[in-house]
């Protein structure tokens, strides 16, 4: 005879709550980051993106800071490229400055970094002393002192004259004035020097020991070990210095007295942009110059990145 179970059925257990969707969970994890980023995003929008959009619009207008902008289309660009000889002189002066100043500055910075790497006592002092001009050199006061040093009767002309080299005033000589700005820039080699020094300290001493065992001298070690291992740092400094050099303004303004003289020999691109925008009140023309400079820097930077594949070596690239 079969027995019938009188036990009551077990109550249904509540199912565990489903985990939140991955997208929702990511949003919950990311909102604190957006809160902290909000001031930066507002600053970027208000202080960078909006002014850039306004300047782009003004580059297609005739605007003199007092009357409402008048739309002229591409007239500012065509006038700049085909009817303005001073524009092309400013381009030539800036290119000459970049071609001379950037290699000299990077070469001096690398040489100083290599000397400091092998220096024992006093390295911190010399590193600070070499870095100080990078902090001070961008100021107008230092640029004015530099102008006085190279002016007629200044220290440089007096010292050179005492050894029979009579150059007179560098500032007043159209053939030498641009080199006053070049030397002021090269003097500020401290910032790239610190970056080079950090890169040199990351190179393994075992590489130099292996090269020495193979019979490599100092020069061969520099060419075969230091340069390839330091090439990413060289590339980084090259891009930064190139961008900064195309935008040089304060030294050119101080050395030339704000006029780009003598004979437009120190009429750098940014100085001419300032003159057209704030002296001649052709703000639309100046905005067009600014955008053309941005495009030129972007193109040159892109070329540097493209060509870097053939000469920049990364230590871990074989494992990638």
From TrEMBL:
Signal peptide: none annotated. This is Sugar ABC transporter permease. Its main location: membrane. The chain crosses the membrane at residues 33-58, 95-116, 128-149, 176-200, 221-240, 283-305. Residues 1-26 are annotated as: Disordered. Pfam families: BPD_transp_1 (PF00528). It is found in: Cell membrane. The keyword RNA-binding does not apply. The keyword Transport applies. Belongs to the binding-protein-dependent transport system permease family. InterPro entries: ABC_transporter_permease, MetI-like, MetI-like_sf. Residues 91-304 form the ABC transmembrane type-1 domain. It comes from Streptomyces olivaceus. Residues 11-20 have a biased composition (Pro residues). It is a multi-pass membrane protein. Keywords: Cell membrane, Membrane, Transmembrane, Transmembrane helix, Transport.
């Amino acid at each position: 005879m079969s027995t019938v179970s009188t036990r009551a059925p077990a109550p249904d257990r509540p199912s565990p709550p489903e985990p939140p969707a991955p997208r929702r969970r990511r949003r919950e994890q990311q909102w604190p980051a957006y809160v902290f980023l909000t001031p930066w995003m507002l600053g970027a929008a208000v202080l960078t993106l909006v002014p850039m959009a306004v300047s782009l619009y003004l580059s297609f207008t005739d605007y003199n800071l007092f009357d409402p902008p008048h739309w002229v289309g591409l007239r500012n660009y065509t006038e700049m490229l085909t009817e303005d000889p001073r524009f092309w002189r400013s381009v030539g002066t800036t290119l000459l400055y970049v071609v001379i100043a950037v290699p000299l500055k990077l070469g001096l910075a690398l040489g100083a970094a290599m000397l400091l790497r092998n220096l024992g006592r006093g390295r911190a002092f010399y590193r600070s002393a070499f870095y100080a001009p990078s902090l001070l050199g961008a100021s107008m006061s230092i640029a004015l002192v530099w102008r006085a040093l190279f002016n007629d009767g200044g220290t440089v002309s007096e010292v050179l004259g005492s050894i029979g080299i009579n150059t007179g005033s560098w500032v007043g000589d159209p053939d030498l004035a641009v080199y006053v700005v070049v030397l002021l820039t090269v003097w500020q080699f401290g910032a790239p020097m610190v970056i080079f020094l950090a890169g040199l300290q990351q190179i393994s001493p075992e590489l130099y020991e292996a090269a020495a065992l193979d019979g490599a001298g100092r020069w061969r070690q520099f060419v075969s070990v230091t340069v390839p291992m330091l090439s990413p740092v060289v590339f980084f400094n090259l891009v930064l210095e190139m961008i900064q050099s195309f935008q040089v303004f304060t030294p050119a303004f101080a050395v030339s007295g704000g006029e780009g003289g003598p004979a437009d020999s120190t009429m750098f691109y940014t100085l001419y942009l300032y003159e057209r925008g704030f002296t001649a009140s052709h703000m639309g023309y100046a905005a067009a110059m600014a955008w053309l400079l941005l495009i030129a820097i972007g193109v040159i930077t892109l070329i540097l990145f493209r060509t870097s594949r053939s000469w920049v070596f990364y230590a871990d690239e074989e494992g990638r």
